[in-house]
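Page header: ASSEMBLY MODEL / two components / 1359 residues total.
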Amino acid sequence: MGKVGAVAIIGAGIAGIQSALDLADGGFKVYLIDSKTTIGGRMAQLDKTFPTLDCAMCIVSPKLVEASRHPNIDLILYSDVTSVSGTEGNFKLKLLKKARYVEEDKCTGCGICVEKCPSKVPDEYNAGLSKRKAIYLAFPQAVPRVMTIDAAHCLYLTKEKCGVCKKVCAAGAVNYEQKDREIELDVGSIILATGFTPFDPLLLKQYKPTHPDVITSMQFERILSASGPTQGHVLRPSDGKAPKYIGFIQCIGSRNPHIGRSRCSSVCCMQAIKEAIIAREHDPNLDITIFNIDIRAFGKGFEEFYSRAKKEFGIKFITSRPPEVQVDSAGKMFVRYEDLNEGKIKNMPLDLVVLSVGLDPSPETKKLASMLGLDLDEFGNVTSLIDHPLETNAPGIHACGVVQGPKDIPDTVAQGSGAAAKASALLATERGTLIKEKIYPKEKAIPEQPRIGVMVCHCGINIGGVVNVPAVVEYAKTLPNVVHSEEAIYACSKDNQEKIITLIQEKNLNRFVVASCTPRTHEQLFQNTLKDAALNPYLFEFANIREHCSWVHMNEKEKATQKAKDIVRMGVAKSNLLAPLSTSKVPVTQTALVIGGGIAGMTCALDIANNGFPVFLVEKEEKLGGLLRHVTSLEDGRRSSDIITPLIRNVMSHPRIQVFTGTQLAELKGYVGNFEGTLDTKGTKHEIKFGVAVIATGANELVPSGYYNYGARNIITQLNLENALENGFEKPPENVVMIQCAGARVPERPYCSRTCCVEAVKNAIRIKKETKASVYVLYRDMRTYGVWEKLYREASSLGVVFLRYSEEKPPVVKDSTVTVHDLLIGDDIEIEADLIVLSAPMVAPASNVELAKLFKVPMDKNGFFLEAHAKLRPVEFATTGVLLCGTAQAPKLIDEGIAQASGAAAKACVLLSKVEMETDAMIAVVDEKLCIGCGTCVKVCPFNAPQLIEVEVNAEEVVYLAKKSRINPAMCKGCGSCAASCPTGAISPRGFTAPQIKAAVRAFSGIVEVPS
Amino acid sequence: MAASNVQSCYQCGKCTSICPMRRVSKTSPRSSIYNSNVYGLDTKDIWTCLTCGLCPQECPQQVDFLSFVKEEREGKKYEEIAHKGVFSETAALMSKLNGSSVVTQEQKSENSNYAYFPGCVDFLDLFLHDVGVNFGEIATSSMKLLNHAGIKPKILPLKCCGHDVLWQGKKDVFDRLVKYNTKVINDSGIETLILSCAECYRTFAKDYNLKPKVVHISEFLKGTGANHKSTVTFHDPCRLGRHMGQYDAPREALKASGAELVEMAHNKGDAMCCGVSSFMNCNEQTKAMRVLRLDEAQATGAKTMITTCTKCLAHLNCLKNEKEAAKKYDIDIVDLTVYLARQLEAK
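Prediction written out in full:
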């Protein structure tokens, strides 16, 4: 029996959605399953995301819509898997789809039923802080936009009373007789992405979790959110007043073996810092303290964010864990804690207590694991190996996201893509067998006369709370050629897409302007809506009245409304001049180039090759293996050779991988789908052609010269220590001192290198087990995050001594004496050491600069490559066709690098799976008549798109050769730099032509022209 | 690796913030762990610790602070033991003298599977005659109640259980007592050993390795048949409560006797200590602890406070019956068995 070219993804949070999109884009049928009524998972509940403070809903909402609109994805919601049979390649799933009591195909999502429903129920989306109705939509942007009746609280279903929703539903969608029904699916692979459930603090009664002003971090997230119960105002639940003193208590349900939760939840420190900063932004009078044991700010940009919290926002951090929340006789809350530095007991009065709750495995995970025969680790996570982070013990069943262990959003997204790569590799032969292309209606011809539709969005209260939206709607009606104008609570919701289509058809519109947020996140959504309405997508125009208006003029409502009108007027003026644009197709070389033969590069190459595409793997060293060759043991106690050796063997023997060692990429031209490169192997050149490139150039351990007397005898780095532990010490040490952050978290290198704490405890355990030495670890914060907290515990139990030092008073090394200022006793301590090990950070290779120039991709300020988006695009560059993974992006642990590598492979396979690809339509074009061949455009283009070519000019009697600029449509990103710098005005960016811009500018100045 | 697992301490300070002793002194469990674990230093806090068991209950890293204290004290001499160490000296003497036992009148009930041991009530009566408690009444009350419940237990010729010397660091004395008592108990052929003293109960149950089951008398007291309506509060001795997890049996026995039980602000798992265990210290700090506890009891409005540990009984009554009392408390502090036996008599 052949394999089935379909994948079931259980869990439709951001991990599941990412897997679904990558598989569906790569040509597989996807069933995205969730027990909830909507997709989006926990991320949809967040207010903003760290460390960039992007609005979570704004970045996830387009993904929700994309997943729901994708022709290859079927959403199967409100459904539980009841049984699974079959094997890898051929699974049969049975599901029970619970009755919504609302017909999905009839419900328009209008919400009248919700308005009229008399039964109120605590709202899960707002973490119980507000009420929803018994018939409800989980949240305003929920996808699909279909109501559900909560049978337990519906008066009709429980007592046969009421029945109001059925009466008011004009669409006849309410059906009290609806029954649960069984669904059967045939799939080739299963991806488990069941995420987490926030720890329930009722288990820790001493923190008074039932007190109204003691809330969880998830509840505080909702309070901070504009769509939350207090519209984003920081108010305490008991009396609705603004608090003054807020205290966060960390590790509630984490790092606490006492209650069976010994792992660190990885994200709570950053979540607390984020929430503290947002709260301070909302109310600068707040006095916020975060009680913690260690602040685990280990990810990219996290340490810098933590620094800002202290310095810019005055957030206080106290290293102490209050044992309880107390209430005094006057009813005032306070916590009692030991000031470790002063050795004093202190009381801190608090108006609001936020419990930073950890990530518990979701209840579904255990059930599914037993159904699927999956092993769970001691923490309840699906068991995986360091070298196979996405694979479970059951062949054909993959896991991604928090189900595999606590992690943040970018790691979850990378794993989501990675699991897609694993599933698609398994089913590579079945690619494209079960999918359908989305067919849009044929584009209508556009008559001369513009007929413009306008929709003005409230964006919940993001816009509507500041701008008088109805007034803007009325104003728009007065503008030339506007034939329709209306408002919307969320223009981006699914029902409003239907609405736009109907409007275009009924009112014969040929331009559409949405006044809401930013094209960055939402343009494609509305463009596709236009396509659905048989209009060219480029006849859509955005008027950004949120980022450009309501958000920045919160306290000037009247002026903001005036400005919103101005912005709409500009958008309408420009839209009068919009013209249909078309894309073109370019062939794709279905081969990948992977640069870097470390663990990430090799994994990525292997995954791409296993998906059926040839790969060139280039490594500048003579041997494959990268930094891991210098590491001798893994966190799980295995030897690193246990994973490198088989990987190298698999790479070398793979028929589709061609390995070039001792080789560098010397030259590069071309663009996504059509790259041409020159490889240089010690002077020997190879010309290669490829469609995508993955940068996996890794990182190096810093040579910590200038820190702690490095260079003197017996002062080594952790990698040196790995080597010594493997090959033996000259003389076994008796007193070992490890110094953490040796060259990291310092002004010249402000980032945390993420891996060094885990590395240090791993090596400390090894020393303890293999020698009789005393081991001291001098640290600032122990950042043994996630499941690796267990190594910290083990090291402690083995007698490794941990001493905290402060940034202000780092240890001093003189000869064999390490002097450290012990904060806990307030005194300098001298330790005689015969071995001093510096935990030096990973640093980006200097050669990144050349590669960045070659590919024209950006680097961050620490010299690592900069991904397209910190949260949702962790393995991509802004430049299409160029991907990244592993420590080239930022320091990370082995399993994290491997997951990212698989993620990058998935992205590569999506591009390589097509014989030809479509170019962007909004690109720059050259009017060759005006081009004088000066080459300015070639110099300014960040994407290598323009080239000067020689053409023959025929001017009546004169014929001559001249240079002319030609812009490659596959490489042009439409940024407009060339057009702005072209001295003759020969270059015009489509969608932003000079007449269009001019019309907008004139409209801004108040000149409303009726175009002829 | 030490049994106490102090190495796991990650210095969060929860123990110090919750330590009842910290409310009356500068003691810091966290810092004593740190000093010992990192620097191998002793601290005086080791000796002020009540071993009440509150901090290990809260410790996220499950550090067994009680074992740590026991280990730290072992073999070391503490000069300030309360009552000039008379009780430990007695125990030491007893451990060395052949045939000496706490129980002078051995009662042989040939066909009983049960034995009852009253603990050192006679010595308490001898040395603590001024606190206003008849400790011997606990033994007679216990026998009455057990007989009423249809149990005619043997009285074994046991020596001191060794509780105090164990917690005072005198492991050698303790080991001798264990050796003697274990033989008597195991050879007696009983199936169940019943104790009325919380300290004896904890010690026989956890620090001995006995053949018979070790049970606290409160588990046999539900059936007095009395119906005496009075308002009482119950003080959980740390040895019965946090050490042994027995919170319900004494409460159920009280309720069954018709008593209305009102709880103090701190009760069951987070009950406050009487201020002293193992006769370690008697000073301003331990007295302050007692003030805290009796204030809580007074605030309940109950006229009777029931407990089931001779130390709690001695210390709380001692404060109440001071000749020049700094503070007056209008509350009787009575042992559970005595309270219930009196009800039985009155019936």
